[in-house]
Structure formats: C-alpha cells, structure tokens
Amino acid sequence: MANAKKLINLINRIFVSRGLSPKHAMISAKALINAELVGAHSHGLSRLKMYCDRIDKKVINPKPKIKIKNISKSISKIDADNSIGFVAADIAIKKAIDNAKKTGIGLVGVKKSGHYGLSGYYAEQATNKNLVTMIFTNAPPAVAPHGALKSLFGTNPICFGTPTGSKIPFILDTSISMINRGKIRVAARNNKKIPEGVALDKNGKPTTDARKALQGVQLPIAGFRGSGLAWMVDILSGVLTGGNHAGKVKDPFDDFTGPQNIGHLFFTFKPNLFVNDYNKRIKNNIKTIKALPKIKGIKEIMYPGQNKFKRLKINSRKKINIPSNIKKDITKLVSKNTILKY
Amino acid sequence: MANAKKLINLINRIFVSRGLSPKHAMISAKALINAELVGAHSHGLSRLKMYCDRIDKKVINPKPKIKIKNISKSISKIDADNSIGFVAADIAIKKAIDNAKKTGIGLVGVKKSGHYGLSGYYAEQATNKNLVTMIFTNAPPAVAPHGALKSLFGTNPICFGTPTGSKIPFILDTSISMINRGKIRVAARNNKKIPEGVALDKNGKPTTDARKALQGVQLPIAGFRGSGLAWMVDILSGVLTGGNHAGKVKDPFDDFTGPQNIGHLFFTFKPNLFVNDYNKRIKNNIKTIKALPKIKGIKEIMYPGQNKFKRLKINSRKKINIPSNIKKDITKLVSKNTILKY
Fold first, then answer.
1. What whole-number distance in Å separates Cα of residue B78 and Cα of residue B107?
2. Which domain holds residue A46?
3. Same domain, yes or no, for B289 and B339?
4. CA B149, B150, B152, B153 torsion: positive or negative?
5. For chain A, what is the domain count?
6. Are residues A122 and A253 in the same domain?
7. Distance between CA atoms of B11 and B6, rounded to whole angstroms?
8. What is the ipTM of this complex?
C-alpha cells in the first residue's frame, strides 16, 4: 500500500534516473498513477517496467527533440522523436486546446510516439478547458479484421469527451475490442480466466485462458462493424499522421527491435460554435436519459466517465494497493537507480 | 421493374408536385434511388410515401429558407428551416467540402433538418473531392441506453470516409444498433423474421417478430460500449447543433405532430495535412490487410464501402425491382399529382 503523491515522486525519480527530464518524468509519473486511481490497473504500474526496459534498450528516446509544426492556426503536426507516449500526448492535447481556443477548432496529428496510457486522461484536459474532443490512437496487433485469421488491428480506442456543465465530464473511452488487451495481460499475470466470447487462441479456437488469448486473437465488438471502426482508427491515427499502421506498431512488452512509432490524432472544438446554451442543452440531455425507467437491479443510468470519476475521488483518499510482482519490479528499478542511492 | 434514370425523373416529378423546387426535388430523387442501387432498400423507395406524407401534413417544408452562417473560414452553421433532409445534407456537405478545400479543415453543424437517407452517400461527395470525412446524425428513438428499459437513442450512425487512391473509396457507415431500424421495417412489411439477439419487444423480452420489435427496443452493439457511442452521436449531432436530442426526434413514419428537427454534423479535412504520400500509405494499408490469411469460406477481405460500390456498379446496369406495395404507393402519389395529369 502506498500514498499516491509519494508514488508519483518515486516513479518520477525512476524516470529521471532513466534520463528523462524532470518535467517529462513528472508528466509520465502522473499519467501512470492516474490510471491506478481510476482503476485502470492495466494501464498503470503494471507498465512501469516495460517503459523503463524500452528506455534502457533505446527504443524510447529519453531526450527527444520534439518538433511541432503549425500547418495553420487550427492544424498542427508533431514529430515526437520516439519520446515516451505520455509526453507526446501531453504536448499534443495542449496544442490542440490552444488551437481550438484561438480558432474554434483544433486538429493535431502526432507521429513517432509510443503507448500513452488512457485516451480519456488527455480528453479530460480538453473538457477541463471547456472543449469538446475526439482522440484516436492505434496500438499493436490484437484484433483480427473481419474475415481474417490473424490479428492486425490494435484495440484502437475511440475517445470522445465533452464538458457537461457539471464537475464530471462526459468521457467515452472505448476500445473496439471485446476486451482490453491490458486486462488480458493482468489476468494472465494473476492466473485468472477471461470471459467467454472475447478471444480466440492461436489456432482460431475460442478460449478463456488469458495466456492463450495473448498468443491468439481478440475479437472486435459487433463483428464487421467493430472491425470497420478499428480500421477507421488505424487510418486516422496511423495512415494520416505518418505513424506506423496496418499491424506495424510493435508490442511494447515483447518487441524491442525498434521504436513503436505510434500515431495519435487529437481533435478539439468549442461547444458553443452552433448554439449559445450548450451547457444547458447537455445538462437536459443527461437529465432526460437518467430519468428513463431502469432495468431491474440498475440503480442509476451512468454516462461514460462518471464511474471513472467516482473511482478517482474514492481512490484518491485511499492508499494504492501494489501487487507483490509489481513491488518487486519497482524495487529492482530503484536499486538500479544510482541517483536514488544518494 | 424500372429503369433508374426513369425512376429518378418520376420521383423528381412527384416531389415537384409536392412543392419542392426542381433542384431540391432532383437532389432528393437521386439520393432515394442511390439507396436502391446500393441495396439499402430500407432507405430507398420504401420511404417515398413517408416523405410525401410529411410534406402534405406540413411537417416537411417544401420551400425552406435555408440559412447558412459562416462562423469562420472553416466552421459554418446551417438552419435548414425543416427542409427535406436530403437537401439540408447536400448543402451541408458541399459547404464542409468548400471549407476544407480553403483551410484544410471544415466543420458544419445543421439543425432543423430531417431524415437524409444514407450518411455514406454524403461521405462519398467528400471522398470524391479527395477529402477525409466524418458524419454524424441522430434519429428517432430505437435503442435503449445501457441500463434503461426504454428506447431513446436513434440508430445514430457513425460514418467515416476516406479516399483510397483507387476508384472505390473507404466508406464506413455503421449504425450503432445491432440491426438497422429500416431493415426491421422492411421485414415487418414483407412478413419476415429478424435475427435473434438484436431486439426486445415492448415488455423487454427478446423477439424475432419484426412488428413486435418495432414496438419494442433495438439493442445497441456491444452493450455499454455501443450505448456510449450512440450517446456520443446524439451529443455531436443533436446537442451541439441545436437539433432535437435525448429522444425528442420524431419518428417520420408515425409522428406528424411537428417537424423532426434532426441535427447533423459534417467534419471534413485534407488527407495530406501531416504526410505528403497519403494515397501511397492508404493503398499499402489496404493491401496489407487484404493479404492476411482468411477464415475458411471468405474469398476476399473487403474494406467498408467496397461491397456497396460493387452493388452500385452491378445494379446500375440492371432494372430496379419495385415491390408491389411500393408500386401502389407510387401510383397513388402520381395520381394525386395534378401537374403529372397534363
């Protein structure tokens, strides 16, 4: 069990010891611990060792020269120089926010980035600045295109965020895979089974064994529809930006033969472009939907992001539980760390 | 059986007899027949009587004063004055294309519109002009939000289109409902069953009876994920634009108490904003995915829009089959039509 602030500082120092600037290390540490606090453990501390390994093996650049080029006042492109994904995404969403604040609309394409954690974490930066946002990123092969026997698409999340006129933003951050790859990884690590109907083994047979699923194929949501959405995300984040695509994004845990070169796309705009009472309208929208008759056993109809926000509130007051295998990782990472010895 | 060109002219004259300008009538007739030619019969001639009824009952305005206001060189808003949806959408996508051609990016919000047929039909206008596009529209209640016992979201399609460097654009046009409401309507009309697991009856029980499904609830794809995507589309097309939302869009077939006030959002941008070899990149993307090993029985991995394009090619050479009930509709609509008597 550990205090969130202390953990952030510890991870910050681990990243600094790996050569990241204090600023980049802090951005990364905060993003990782946020994932823990919202309950997305698959995107939290369980990835710390992977990020450090990739820096050690020189496939994440700890001292990136990130290039930002403005195509217009609304549109910018970023070459992240193989930075850790958190830093590339943080710079990109801030640029997209600036552009939208100036012109009403912002579009930022990023190439040569890596896994950046949760899309919703960046969406929240935009909603906090009273902007609507859509965010796309691709990921290593996990889901088979409809009709194919081999995985190629990543879990390619679709992320949409909007302010709601209340403290809790509407943030949809949904993988187009039946199950998040990170969740399968956590299940494999903890010897737990995965649900039926979400994955096939390497021979194309349904499986509930997490380890077999990692070697096999995850199924897209809704067959050809989900496959089409995954393809869309691959085009928007990879083909369009100059990032890797069509299955070329390397698995960050298993493949150290080169940088991931993930692409991201950040789209932002003001909510009051077409109406002058957006806050009132979205409040009414949510209120109307929440007032619908509910299925037996459902206490409240929740909008996307609401549960995550509640978990963040609750968990921020508690200590973070660190599984023993991750504790070992952290101990090793710290002991390797000469700066921390002093 | 009828020739497509002749049918377009016939429908054009029917719409003109209802008070539409020749230009608006032709836009509408072409969109309706395109739906037939791509095999989307639920969005074709089966809706002709509905459109005419709505004009007759003054809930579609045949002589709209459509107002276009430029918010910036990239962003425009349109008040469609309760025009037939085809016309509002046609003006909007052309505006979004113009804006993107000028500034790299276009965003057009439309309110006071109606059902416009297939989103993909408008996406194709953008891809034909070498632009990438995303299009959102809401629709009358059909799908229950996750946890709710009552339908509220429309089938709210997500549409994405991009040029491919070949003749056939990539056009994903996918409802977030397990089944298209129009398809249930066609099944009900033809006394056919619908698949299992796509709809509930009015008591919340699974049904394969198309008529019972129309009184009940359609299920979203992928549970809470699909429900979240439907909610996103309702916000983007309804809350944002000034259109109806949160279940207020009227069913065009059943509810003549007022205009639908559907909202649409058209987003367009140039494919070469971030890279200078987009066509080459997307060709490679598609080629790589098509070359994957295939599931037994699958001849070719198709990208979204490819099948529809093939059907259009084939059907354009053939005559259109008109079911007898629709033939009766057309005969009545023509006989009511004083202009056609001369």
1. 11
2. 1-56+305-342
3. no
4. positive
5. 2
6. yes
7. 9
8. 0.94
> Are B287 and B336 within one domain?
no
Structure tokens of A252?
A: 């960050």
Instruction: Report yes or no: A219 and A199 within 8 Å, Cβ to Cβ.
Output: yes
Interface subset of A 66-125, CB within 8 angstroms of B: 71-72, 74-75, 77, 103-105, 107, 109, 111
Pick out chain B residues at pLDDT < 50: 341-342
A86 and A35 in one domain?
Answer: no
With respect to residue B100, please indicate whether it lies within any of the assigned structural domains.
yes
Cα A86-A87-A88 angle, rounded to 5 deg: 95
* Amino acid (one-letter) located at A225: R
pLDDT, residue B274, reads 98
B311-325: pLDDT as tens digits: 999 999 999 999 999
Say whether A145 and B222 touch across the interface (CB within 8 A).
no
Domain presence at residue B170: yes
User: Under an 8 A CB cutoff, do A239 and B282 touch?
Assistant: yes
pLDDT in tens, A258-314: 999 999 999 999 999 999 999 999 999 999 999 999 887 889 999 999 999 999 999
3-state secondary structure of B97: helix
Record: contact B104-A72, CB cut-off 8 A: yes
Domain shared by A157 and A227, yes or no? yes
Q: How many other C-beta atoms are found inside a 10 Å radius of the C-beta of residue B185? A: 18
Residue B116 has a pLDDT of: 97
Query: In 3D, which of B111, B127, B132, B147 has the Cα closest to residue B263?
Result: B111
CATH code (residue A238): 3.30.1370.60
| Residue A86 in domain | yes
Helix, strand and coil in chain A, % to nearest 5: 45, 15, 40
Strand B75-79, strand B105-113: pairing:
parallel
| Inside any domain, residue A233 | yes
Q: Taking the alpha carbons of A302, B201, B223, B158 in that order, is the dihedral positive or negative?
A: negative
Site from B76, B217, B225, B298 to mutate, A interface, most A CB atoms within 10 angstroms: B225
The pLDDT score that the predictor gives to residue A339 is 54
Q: Which tokens belong to B271?
A: 């494919």
Ranges of H-type helices in A104-143: 119-128
Q: Are residues A319 and A259 in the same domain?
A: no
Q: Is B291 on the interface with A (CB under 8 A)?
A: no
Count of H helices and E strands in chain B? 12, 9
- Residue A245: φ, ψ to 5°: -160, 180
Output the CA torsion sign for B253, B256, B257, B259.
positive
Which residues of B126-215 form beta strands (DSSP E)?
Answer: 132-137, 158-162, 170-174, 199-200
Give the model's confidence band at A341: pLDDT under 50 very low, under 70 low, under 90 confident, else very high.
very low
Tell me the Cα Rg of chain A.
Answer: 20
A79 in the same domain as A27: no
Residue A152 and residue B292: Cβ atoms within 8 Å?
yes
**B139 and B112 belong to one structural domain:** yes
A236: which chain B residues are within 8 Å (Cβ-Cβ)? 132, 160
* Single pTM value for the model: 0.94
Query: Does any CB of chain A come closer than 8 Å to the CB of residue B284?
Result: yes
What is the C-alpha to C-alpha distance for residues A178 and B337, in angstroms, rounded to an integer?
53
